[in-house]
Specification:
The chain is α/β, with parallel strands linked by helices. Helices cover 48% and strands 7% of the residues. It has a single domain, classed as Rossmann fold (3-Layer(aba) Sandwich), CATH 3.40.50. The longest helix has 21 residues.
Length: 353
């Protein structure tokens, strides 16, 4: 499912449903009034978050394939804040689509039933001004009222599941690194996973995606707006960097987004902040280790989630990307990144024992 292939009617509906903040808030209120959550036992959720390009999507899909999780999918679009009502209405005109490669050009196929990162619409609706500035995204404190609303929202998402086995919520939302204490407060028993990747390789991938999406957005204004509505500012025409600490942000300001050093500064700023501020029970894990030993790593992550990985799990589902060379890197940034990567690797090794 690609936002670039939507019909005129689809685009108009998305603009109406995702554009005005007031309409989004009203849709959530209607959902709570008209589609009360069904009484069922709800298991602990799983939250996957970190910088993009560290295997978050493939990890989400592996959890989703167990059949025990309800995650937002393309079928929930565009009324993602009223999942119960929209599920009832949209079933009368469900479409079937052959899976196609997503816009990232990374070989991951998507269709209407693919789980995706749409949760940020909730946070944009109720916390927009507190973390989205003109030029950056910043950590924000979430009040008790919004935390309660988020708990209600998760209940609504689970209640709209097609099968009773889908009794756990699954989220892949990179922006949640801006509010991890609130996520933990909302769901004390939830599993919070923070994947990380070799800083230079992850930065190269981010730069490539940025260039690719800048070109896409220059030729497709709707695609640009679509990403902004969803709160996806990782790269492309809607890009706004995460900013956590002034010193590293200053280093990044010496470079433009078309520079690899710019993305490396974001990596340093983000993971340096997470090392010192993430709730102590968050699980950091290495993308490189996952690629080298998929089954042992996934068995441990599943164990932490209270699951059992299927014995015949096909390890070739996880394919390590080719290593790429980098030139003209800022040596100070590289050293900072390597120091942080070493500490992250120690945390990952301890978590996966």
């Amino acid at each position: 499912m690609s936002e670039h292939n939507y019909s005129f009617g689809d685009r108009l509906l998305h603009r109406l449903a995702l554009g005005p903040s007031l309409l989004r808030k009203v849709s959530f209120d209607i959902e709570l009034l008209a589609a009360p959550s069904r009484t069922r036992e709800v298991g602990p959720p799983v939250f996957i978050n970190g910088l993009a390009r560290a295997g978050t999507t493939i990890l989400m899909r592996i959890f989703h394939d167990t059949g025990q999780f309800r995650s937002l999918t393309y079928r929930d679009m565009p009324f993602v804040l009223m999942p119960g009502i929209w599920a009832r209405l949209s079933k009368f005109f469900h479409k079937q689509e052959e899976a196609k490669e997503r816009s990232h050009g990374d070989g991951i196929l998507v269709n209407f039933d693919s789980p995706e990162a749409f949760e940020e619409v909730f946070w944009k609706t109720f916390c927009d001004d507190s973390y989205i500035a003109k030029t950056q995204l910043s950590p924000h404190n979430v009040g008790t009222e919004v935390i309660s609303q988020f708990q209600d929202y998760v209940k609504q998402v689970i209640s709209s599941a097609e099968t009773p086995q889908q009794c756990r919520y699954l989220s892949k939302n990179n922006n949640n690194i801006l509010r991890l204490p609130a996520i933990r407060k909302a769901f004390p028993k939830g599993l919070i996973l923070i994947p990380f990747r070799d800083p230079v390789q992850q930065s190269i991938s981010l730069l490539q995606q940025h260039n690719q999406f800048c070109e896409l957005h220059a030729n497709d204004p709707f695609g640009h707006d679509y990403m902004a509505w969803l709160g996806h500012h990782e790269f492309g025409g809607t890009h706004k960097p995460f900013r956590f600490t002034a010193n590293v942000a200053h280093m990044g300001n010496a470079h433009q987004p078309d520079s690899l050093n710019y993305w490396l500064s974001i990596w340093v700023d983000t993971y340096g902040y997470l090392l010192s501020s993430a709730p102590s029970d968050c699980i950091f894990f290495s993308f490189e280790t996952l690629c080298r030993s998929p089954k042992p790593v996934l068995e441990k992550l599943f164990e932490l989630a209270g699951l059992v990985l299927e014995k015949d799990f096909q390890e070739d589902k996880i394919k390590p990307p080719k290593l790429k060379d980098a030139n003209e890197l800022d040596e100070n940034l590289v050293q900072l990144a390597q120091n942080i990567y070493t500490e992250l690797s120690k945390r990952s090794e301890a978590a996966l024992k």
